[in-house]
């Protein structure tokens, strides 16, 4: 279980291995994960997740702090925990989680699906629709009816007309898949909430209320809005790096990279090194990890945008998450 407000602290095995400068398999083989005092995983699933505050304390030789024990509506439960809360087996939850009222609240953390406690606890299964031809939404087997490049503007219009519009409402109006509708709504709400938060110093909840967004529909958008703000704050730094790389002759332009959010609470950016003398195809920046090289210009982030350990063409560069551009250039020079 990820306790409320601690999602940003979650670490994967890859994160812990990277923190120590070793490969994941080396970390596993070392036995450290089973050593006395090492923090317990946050769940019992196949993919192990850990609390970063606890891991940092253990690695630094400090007492490992206890996690909060009081249940909170915003605790994030994994598959086994959700099933236990509902008094069903995990296979039954696998069916339950497909209900749109649950699916739109799914939160992916470290590659593991989670759901807010209150969603799991309070969910009532949606009645099955008739199999006749009068059902709403997008017909089965039919592709999205709105071209992808037109979708943001069309969804923005619906959001302007009705701030409380749901993914189901977008699906019914535009004929797109519910997941597509939910992603577009979350992105748009987050951008607008970030504008209010930036301009007025408001919290995510205050921004949502000012914009007329129901609290039950904006949890993910609030998390993403905070990431959008952090991304905006990182732009000047990323622009400095882009200029330094261009001055070194590794890029053909000094255009700063766009900040991306592969997960709602994450900021990353990609700088393609497209000059002939470049020491790597691309660089990837993560607000959590700093800089690394990438082996592909076309797919520099890799599957799931996971942070890979060093090796196989991947090199972690400089130290810290925002090293000086000159230090980054020096680190890259050493790869020649």
TrEMBL record:
Positions of the UniProt region annotated as Disordered: 119-146
Pfam families, per database record: DUF6292
Highest taxon of the lineage: Bacteria
Every DUF6292 domain range: 237-330
Alphabetized InterPro entries for the sequence: DUF6292
This protein's name: DUF6292 domain-containing protein
Source species taxonomy: Bacteria, Bacillati, Actinomycetota, Actinomycetes, Kitasatosporales
């Amino acid at each position: 279980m990820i306790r409320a407000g601690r999602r940003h602290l979650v670490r994967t095995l890859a994160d812990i291995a990277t923190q120590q400068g070793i490969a994941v398999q080396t970390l596993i083989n070392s036995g450290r994960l089973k050593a006395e005092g090492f923090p317990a995983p946050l769940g019992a699933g196949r993919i192990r997740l850990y609390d970063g505050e606890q891991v940092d304390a253990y690695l630094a030789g400090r007492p490992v702090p206890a996690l909060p024990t009081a249940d909170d509506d915003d605790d994030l439960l994994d598959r086994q925990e959700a099933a236990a809360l509902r008094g069903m087996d995990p296979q039954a939850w696998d069916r339950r989680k497909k209900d749109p009222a649950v699916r739109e609240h799914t939160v992916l953390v470290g590659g593991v699906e989670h759901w807010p406690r209150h969603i799991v606890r309070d969910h009532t299964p949606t009645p099955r629709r008739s199999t006749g031809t009068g059902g709403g939404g997008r017909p089965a087997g039919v592709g999205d009816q709105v071209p992808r490049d037109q979708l943001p503007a069309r969804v923005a219009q619906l959001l302007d007309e009705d701030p409380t519009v749901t993914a189901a409402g977008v699906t019914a109006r535009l004929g797109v898949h519910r997941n597509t509708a939910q992603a577009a709504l979350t992105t748009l709400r987050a951008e607008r909430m970030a504008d209010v938060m930036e301009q007025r110093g408001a919290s995510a909840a205050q921004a949502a209320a000012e914009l007329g967004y129901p609290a039950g529909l904006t949890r993910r958008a609030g998390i993403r809005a905070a990431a959008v703000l952090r991304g905006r704050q990182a732009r000047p730094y990323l622009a400095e790096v882009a200029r330094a790389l261009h001055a070194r002759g590794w890029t053909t332009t000094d255009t700063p990279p766009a900040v991306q959010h592969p997960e709602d609470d994450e900021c990353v950016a990609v700088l393609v090194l497209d000059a002939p003398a470049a020491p790597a195809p691309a660089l990837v920046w993560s607000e959590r990890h700093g800089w690394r090289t990438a082996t592909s210009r076309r797919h520099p982030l890799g599957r799931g945008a996971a942070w890979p350990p060093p090796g196989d063409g991947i090199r972690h560069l400089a130290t810290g998450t925002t090293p000086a551009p000159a230090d980054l250039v020096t680190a890259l020079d050493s790869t020649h």
